[in-house]
Write a structure and sequence with these properties.
This protein is of the alpha+beta class. The protein is built from 6 helices and 9 strands, in the order H-E-H-H-E-E-E-E-H-E-E-H-H-E-E. The protein has a 4-stranded antiparallel beta sheet. The chain has a 3-stranded antiparallel beta sheet with strand order 5-6-7. Strands 8-9 form a two-stranded antiparallel ribbon. The two termini are about 40 Å apart.
């Protein structure tokens, strides 16, 4: 229970950085793979063994060993906090990287600015289930060049690709509506807050109403984006 409370105290609290009034939600919050905690755990085990030796045996240099124990524990705790507070967050609008223990750094970039993603999975990473992401975009200057020690890298890569794809569909939806795209599988919600039927009626209306085409009704399936909330959701079949 104490460990859980410690996790909550030092949690970076990602959701306080969201633009909630614009409908921003977290799609994926990426924590580091457990392998990054291997060294801190080994340091704790070594410090425990030294401390046990100090208590049970009468050896010389007890003060030096005690200092070594304290240094090992302090370093392990610091490494644990550093890795625990380093988060990569994917939302429906942007990507963020939040890191830092006492001073915090928050780097953000719109999701549309991510152009190329390289997923690197070393041999050890394939065995234990982690990988490294390399982003090729203008965002690399803000701390997004490399995101290392990502657990379930294949699933995370697909998630990012889906968000990028749907962000592109949101941007092109208004173009489809203005051009009169009547595809049954895409009604094109257009800009946030405007239904496709309203936009078509606005763009296709003529001064002579006697020959104007009636505005199509949005009887087809809804788009993957909900224009009322400014958020993307999958429609149930």
């Amino acid at each position: 229970m104490a460990g859980i409370g410690l996790f909550r105290i030092f949690d970076p609290k990602v959701r306080r950085h969201l633009i909630s009034d614009e409908g921003e939600v977290v799609i994926d919050e990426v924590r580091h793979h457990w392998v990054v905690f291997t060294v801190p755990v080994l340091e704790v085990i070594l410090a425990t063994a030294l401390l046990f030796a100090l208590v049970t045996t009468n050896i010389g240099g007890a003060q030096v060993l005690l200092v070594i124990v304290l240094v090992l524990l302090a370093h392990a705790f610091w490494q644990f906090l550093t890795q625990h507070r380093d988060r990569f967050v994917v939302t429906n609008m942007r990507v963020m990287r939040i890191r830092g223990v006492f001073s915090q750094t928050v780097a953000t970039t719109p999701i549309a600015r991510i152009l190329d993603i390289t997923l690197q999975k070393p041999i050890v990473g394939r065995l234990f289930g982690y990988g490294h992401f390399v982003f090729e975009s203008a965002a690399q200057d803000q701390g997004f060049r490399e995101i290392k020690w990502v657990s379930r890298p294949d699933d995370r890569d697909l998630t990012i690709q889906r968000v990028i794809q749907r962000t592109g569909l949101r941007a092109s939806a208004s173009v489809d509506v203005v051009q009169g795209d009547d595809d049954s599988d895409d009604d094109g919600t257009g800009p946030i807050g405007m239904d496709s039927a309203q936009e078509v009626a606005t763009t296709t209306s003529a001064p002579n109403t006697s020959h104007a085409r009636p505005a199509p009704t949005s009887s087809g399936p809804r788009s993957i984006f909900n224009s009322d909330r400014g958020n993307w959701t999958e429609d149930p079949d």
